[in-house]
Amino acid sequence: MLLEVWIALLGTAVLISLSPGAGAATAMSAGLTYGIRGASWTTLGLMAGYGIQIIVVSIGLGSLIATSPELFQVIKWVGVGYLLWLGIQFWRQRHNADIESHVSAPGPTRFWQATLINITNPKGLVFLVALIPQFIDPELPQQPQLLLISATLLIIDLSVMTGYSGLAATLRHRFADPAAMQVQQRVAGTALIAAALVLSVATL
């Protein structure tokens, strides 16, 4: 891959990761709820989901989703339902003990939740289907190019999601007492519900 092509890819990857969406909302909610270290489980889960999407596109299944409105709708509504469910769970934490129990949820649970959030975002798959071929030189071996593109997208997204969760984590000290902690939970829940509503209007 030519250097100028990779620089264009790098700029595109930054813009993709910075754009608001389910991933950004999840990263900020995790930072606000668990702090920067605790949010690392969520960030890694988002990367796992994104990586799976990239693999799916690389082996050609993404094209099937992009051309099948029915399959797109099924995946979309699974994602919408899951985000809504998570957001409602945050809102239902009414007592301090409930909130502390939620905050102390095992790291692997947060990892798989975040993985599922990114996997069930069909808009991301369709976007990758449109994006990745733009940076493939058909006259060169495809595998090394796909590896470079995948690594670039994942590293940039990891950096941006870590930044989002870190920014949110800086606000945690404002939510030390139980009443403020409940507000924190509802802010996080609202962000996830908003992400679900945005996903619900996604179209091919």
UniProtKB/TrEMBL annotation:
Subcellular location: Cell membrane
Residue intervals passing through the bilayer: 48-67, 74-91, 111-133, 145-167, 187-203
Keyword field contains Phosphoprotein: no
InterPro entries, A to Z: LeuE-type
Gene Ontology MF: a single term: homoserine transmembrane transporter activity
First and last residue of the signal peptide: 1-24
Membrane topology, from the record: Multi-pass membrane protein
Protein's name according to its UniProt entry: Homoserine/homoserine lactone efflux protein
Organismal lineage: Bacteria, Pseudomonadati, Pseudomonadota, Gammaproteobacteria, Oceanospirillales
